[in-house]
Design brief:
The chain is 56% helix and 0% strand. α2 packs across α3. The chain has a single domain, classed as Clp, N-terminal domain (Double Clp-N motif).
């Protein structure tokens, strides 16, 4: 028996095409490593059954996808141990440590969030972090935001889930931000003014 396909509503194709164009335009303002990290965060949220990508998803994927982000934790065994400990907390979100976040929206109210358009599938704090990453790249004269820009944006919001994880793992968020800044300047650092996560 042939498989039945769902009827396609008029206008669906143009809507999808527009979404793809917006995503391509947004990703053009990011390095390949950051695009990879965002894709990983999207997959992780889906796999864990989370309704939104939050800052902890972003931190997890940054650590896995971007060597510069891992380098911001410093050198030596202690830094390596910190990365392992942070990842240890992050992988527990669906079975232990992060269970308290299930079916809740990450929005502390500690950061201003642009609400003129709904950002489907992203927590308000994750949206703000992406905007700040693009702004940081622009300040450094870079056409694309990189993982270090997003890392610095994450740690600047002390109420977000990413910083919660870092602090529980014994990472000094302020020192991490300073190392991210030094690495950025060492690599010789415009981005677009906004971040659109609609897809």
């Amino acid at each position: 028996m042939p498989e039945k396909t769902a009827p396609t509503r008029a206008g669906d194709a143009p809507t999808r095409a527009g979404a793809e164009r917006r995503r391509a335009a947004a990703e053009a303002r990011l390095t390949a490593e950051l695009v990879s990290a965002l894709s990983g965060a999207r997959r992780r949220a889906l796999r864990d059954g989370d309704a939104q990508i939050d800052t902890a998803h972003l931190l997890h994927s940054l650590l896995e996808a971007d060597p510069q982000v891992r380098a911001a934790f410093g050198g030596g065994d202690q830094a390596g141990d910190q990365v392992v400990k942070v990842l240890g907390y992050l992988v527990q979100r669906s079975i232990g440590y992060g269970l308290r976040w299930q079916r809740t929206v990450e929005d502390s109210g500690a950061v201003p969030v642009v609400r003129e358009r709904a950002m489907s599938g992203w927590s308000p704090q994750a949206v703000t972090a992406m905007r700040r990453a693009l702004e940081r790249a622009a300040r450094h004269g870079e056409p694309r935001a990189r993982g270090l820009d997003l890392l610095a944006a994450l740690v600047s919001d002390r109420e977000c889930r990413a910083v919660d994880v870092l602090e529980r793992a014994g990472v000094d968020a302020e020192a991490l931000a300073e190392r991210a800044e030094r690495l950025t300047r060492a690599h010789g650092r415009g981005a677009g003014p906004g971040w659109n996560t609609e897809n």
